[in-house]
Amino acid sequence: MNIKEIQDLIKFVAKSGVTEVEIEQKDFKITIKAEDNSPREERQIIVQAAAPQQAIAPVSTPAPVAAPAAPVAAAPAPAQDNYITIKSPMIGTFYRSSGPDKDAFVNVGDSIGKGDTVCIIEAMKLFNEIEAEITGKIVKVLVDDATPVEYDQPLFLVDPS
Length: 161
Fold this sequence. Notes:
By secondary structure, this protein is mainly β. The chain is built from 1 helix and 11 strands.
């Protein structure tokens, strides 16, 4: 199965009423799930792919190396006890704006409301607008523009008060 076929399958799941598709062949397994608690055009698509398990020869481990010295303490960060973190719902590339010549969706100090677009995450040539699930004020942007992000990686700190 090539990347084009996988992208077509993701589009099919996103547009149809299907909530889960699983394909298993001798050399790979792919599962595509869509959360069914929102309208079709807003559903979150989750893709899991696994390569076949291959027997791997045991590797001898080298002797442990001494840990590096502790880093010097950085400047104190603002108290984060009452802040809420907006996290990445997927793996992809984080973008603060809809284009290189466009303004950022949100900046530090901006007030956001539930449903406001805060960024875009591009995954497999699909650009997914990430919406705020809370109301508050952006305190800190934790990721640089056009950098890769992991699932559940913190993107923004929000003061809900």
